[in-house]
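Table S2 (text version). Query chain:
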Amino acid sequence: MTSPSCRSLLSNSSRSSSSMTGFNSNADLFDEAGGMESGSHLSTLGRLFAWEKKLYDEVKAGNEMKKIYDRKSSQLSTENATNKQGIEDQVNDLYSRLMVSIKICDSISKRIEKVRDDELQPQLIELLHGLTKTWKVMLESHKTQSRTMFEVRTFPSAAALTSDRSRHLATLQLEAEIQNWRMCFSSYIAATESYIEALSEWAYRTIAPENEGSPPLVFALCRDWLTVTKNLPDKAVTYAMKRFAKDLRTLWAQQGIEQQQKRKVDRLVAESEKRVVGFEREERNIVSSKPMNMKNKVDVLAEKKAQLDGFTKMVETEKAKHKDYVEETCRVILVGFQTGFSSVFDSLTQFSEVCVRKYDDVVQNATSGPNPVLGC
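Corresponding structure-token output:
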């Protein structure tokens, strides 16, 4: 059997997992079996790596020995009778050592096959069982989230939602969380695909030439799992997240415009109040002034009253403009969440449904054959 080192299997999975939020490997989250009934998956991969390395070293040493054997064998036809006996003894010794090396390689190969079929295969099926259960739970959660967002018709305290600076910051924070969610989701998909691809490649290389027509179940399992993983609707999920993040940035900009207008209105209202106070003071002065000066002062006061009315009208115009901005911000919030956020949960619901169905199909195919590994 030609069986390569599984170093790539371990390195691929570790590289991909490094982009995800990691857990302390020494944390007491699981027992020594990693929480699996079929044994520790990590330990199994470690043993496979150790056996593969041993096989690699044995084959490498055997190849070097074969080169020496071939060289010594070719000397037999050119040496004289005096030296021929010594070379024949060396050739016979090398031949015996080569036979031993071949037997060792066969023994190691059989050991790898045994670990592959008796340990790795049940663990992969258990992992798929676990993924199916996980996505069933996620499916129900995303259905509830999607339904909740669809039922939203309005937000309480619309003014508070749009005028408070903390709300403006909260929008930016939500956008950052959505972007992080999208990256984590993409990393999860990439890590899963990388890992299953490495498993499939390794499983294929463990197939002996005489068994190519009937590959081991673990290879069919990895192949089907990889096919499912490559065809999951993850692009729809990441697109929905990206689009909602864009909607949030639009909302953030709209909130900024609304807040800027609010500050403008506040300044104008304060100025208007000062002008009113000034006008009332002048009005009182006229009432208390001498009659001969009263007409001129009344004319001046009338002119100022007209200016005050014009300024008040401008304040009301700016207030109306601010009200329009508030309503537009509320509309962006409502529509953005109903369409943008809902589409995220809708896409995740569809993704979860596909995962549950397809993972279950892979498990059924793997366990319903003539020699099922685990019962469903």
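Notes on Table S2: The chain has eight helices and no strands. Residues 251 and 332 are 6 Å apart (CA to CA).
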